[in-house]
Amino acid sequence: MSDETSPAEAAKPRWYSIQEASAFLEVTEPTLYRWMREKKITYRKIGDSTRFWREDLDAVMQVFNSERNVEESRNICPICHSNEIVEGTYSSTGLNYFQPKKTKFWTLKASNIASTACMCRRCGAITLFGDTKKLNQLLEKSDASARS
Fold this sequence. Notes:
Layout lengths: L6 H5 L3 E2 L1 H8 L3 H9 L6 E3 L2 E5 H7 L9 H4 L11 E4 L8 E2 L14 E8 L5 E5 L1 H16 L1
Antiparallel strand pairs: 1-3, 2-3, 4-6, 5-6, 6-7
Helix pairs in contact: 2-3
C-alpha cells in the first residue's frame, strides 16, 4: 500500500479488524473483547465479522490532563479530539448561568456563574465553561457560613 492516497480513498472509512484494532491500540485481543462486552468501545458487525472505524479506536483513548494543561484542554474537542475550536457564547431565550446547589437562597442573584462556550468546527460539539474563580469564591463563602 503506498503512502499516497487518492481523495476518493481518503474519503472511504478505514475499517480495522479485531487483530488490527488490538495492534493499533497496543492491547491484547482479550482486552479488546472485554471492552466490547463492557461497552467501553464502539464496534460494528458485518455478518459474523467485527470491525472498528478509526474514530472508534481514537474515542476509546482517555486523556487525563495535568493541572497545568487545563487551559490547553479547552482547545481540544472532547468528542472528536479536533483542535479546530471556535470560542463564543451559548444562549437560549436569555443568558445561561450555573448556580451551585450549596449557596444560600439569599445569595442566588450573586451566585449566578456566567458561562462561555466553544464549538468544534469538525463535529459541532459545544462545550460550556464556567468561571471557576467565582465558583471557588462562592463555595468558600458557603463553607465558611456552614462552619459558623
